[in-house]
Amino acid sequence: MRESLQPADIDSSNADAGKTRKRPRPGERRLQILQVLAEMLQNPKGERVTTAALAAKIDVSEAALYRHFASKAQMFEGLISFIEQTVFGLINQINQKEESGLAQARGILQMLLFFAEKNPGMTRVLLGDALLQEDDRLQERITQVLDRVEASLKQALRIAQTQGGTWAQLGSDEVSIRAAMLMSFVLGRWHRFARSGFKKLPTDASDVSLRLLLSE
């Protein structure tokens, strides 16, 4: 299961690799830029990442960055796309594996906490912290991603409604309220993680918390 941004594998088959510097394969430099950007966002001080600092970290010119991305906003869109594809890919896996609505909800919540823990820089993107002073459309995009996650939780709880027990007695408004409450729990854990300099892990005692939140 892939939850963290990894660099492309480097091809070492070239016999002259030790003599000449190989050019990056297509897409390799682009992936490297996103990976280093995500790593720089892990700075506990939460300082804004500039393209100059990013270029220096990769040891290329700023002009080289813009050969792969038209703007800094496009770099952040690349990170958001990674988050979106990974999170919803995992949600689909959870839903296919679990028939119980409550098990689906629990799996989604655990995955969201674990994803943040494995990807501290991405947590700052999810919270919008890293998008401050950037293009406004980035905030709108990440809000849409979080709305879709909440909709997935709501759908899981609706399935739980059809499976008997106390959840079957909940009305549609109550299901929406519960889904929003669960999403608030996740956001709270993410904020706590980021504000602690990534020391207070979002998964700490999460089993107990989720048992209470999803109890009938």
UniProtKB/TrEMBL annotation:
<dbReference type="InterPro" id="IPR050624">
    <property type="entry name" value="HTH-type_Tx_Regulator"/>
</dbReference>
<dbReference type="Pfam" id="PF22276">
    <property type="entry name" value="SlmA-like_C"/>
</dbReference>
<protein>
    <submittedName>
        <fullName>Nucleoid occlusion factor SlmA</fullName>
    </submittedName>
</protein>
<keyword id="KW-0238">DNA-binding</keyword>
<feature type="domain" description="HTH tetR-type">
    <location>
        <begin position="27"/>
        <end position="87"/>
    </location>
</feature>
<dbReference type="InterPro" id="IPR009057">
    <property type="entry name" value="Homeodomain-like_sf"/>
</dbReference>
<dbReference type="GO" id="GO:0003677">
    <property type="term" value="F:DNA binding"/>
</dbReference>
<feature type="DNA-binding region" description="H-T-H motif">
    <location>
        <begin position="50"/>
        <end position="69"/>
    </location>
</feature>
<dbReference type="InterPro" id="IPR036271">
    <property type="entry name" value="Tet_transcr_reg_TetR-rel_C_sf"/>
</dbReference>
<dbReference type="Pfam" id="PF00440">
    <property type="entry name" value="TetR_N"/>
</dbReference>
<dbReference type="InterPro" id="IPR001647">
    <property type="entry name" value="HTH_TetR"/>
</dbReference>
<feature type="region of interest" description="Disordered">
    <location>
        <begin position="1"/>
        <end position="26"/>
    </location>
</feature>
<dbReference type="InterPro" id="IPR054580">
    <property type="entry name" value="SlmA-like_C"/>
</dbReference>
